[in-house]
C-alpha cells in the first residue's frame, strides 16, 4: 500500500475551532474578535501598550494580554469602552432547530 492509501480524509464541521476540539467555541470566537478590535485601535492610533494604558487608566498588561489572546471578554469590553468604542450586545432568538451564535461586528462591517 502507498502512503496515499493510508491517508484518511475527514469532512470538517465548517468551524475550525470546533474541529480542533475547543469546548467553548462561541467564547473563543468572541474573545478573538474583541481582542482584534483592541489591536486594530491601538495600531490605528500608533499606540504602544504603555501609551494605551496611560490613555485609558488600565494596566498595560491588559493590552499585552489582549494581543496574546489571554484576556477575558469583560476585560476586552472594558478596554474597548475606555478606548472610545461603542459596544452593543444584542440577544435574540436562535433560528428554530439551530444553536445560537455569538457575533462581533464593527460599523465598517455593515458593507
Question: Can you characterise this structure?
Answer:
With 111 residues, the protein is mainly alpha-helical. It has one domain (17-110): lambda repressor-like DNA-binding domains (434 Repressor (Amino-terminal Domain)). The protein is 50% helix and 0% strand. The protein has six helices and no strands. The protein has helices at residues 3-6, 16-19, 25-45, 49-56, 60-68, 73-82. Helix 4 (49-56) crosses helix 5. The termini are far apart. The relative contact order is 0.13.
Distance between the termini: 51 Å
**Beta-strand share of residues:** under 5%
Work out the radius of gyration.
Answer: 18 Å
The CATH C-level name is: Mainly Alpha
Q: Determine the mean pLDDT.
A: 84
Q: Give the H and E element order.
A: HHHHHH
The CATH H-level homologous superfamily: lambda repressor-like DNA-binding domains
Amino acid at each position: 500500500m502507498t502512503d496515499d492509501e493510508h491517508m484518511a480524509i475527514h469532512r470538517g464541521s465548517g468551524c475550525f475551532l470546533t474541529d480542533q476540539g475547543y469546548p467553548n467555541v462561541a467564547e473563543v470566537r468572541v474573545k478573538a474578535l474583541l481582542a482584534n478590535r483592541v489591536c486594530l485601535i491601538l495600531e490605528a492610533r500608533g499606540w504602544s501598550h504603555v501609551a494605551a494604558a496611560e490613555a485609558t487608566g488600565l494596566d498595560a498588561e491588559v493590552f499585552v494580554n489582549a494581543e496574546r489572546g489571554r484576556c477575558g471578554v469583560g476585560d476586552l469590553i472594558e478596554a474597548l469602552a475606555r478606548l472610545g468604542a461603542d459596544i452593543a450586545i444584542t440577544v435574540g432568538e436562535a433560528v428554530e432547530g439551530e444553536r445560537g451564535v455569538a457575533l462581533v461586528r464593527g460599523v465598517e462591517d455593515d458593507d
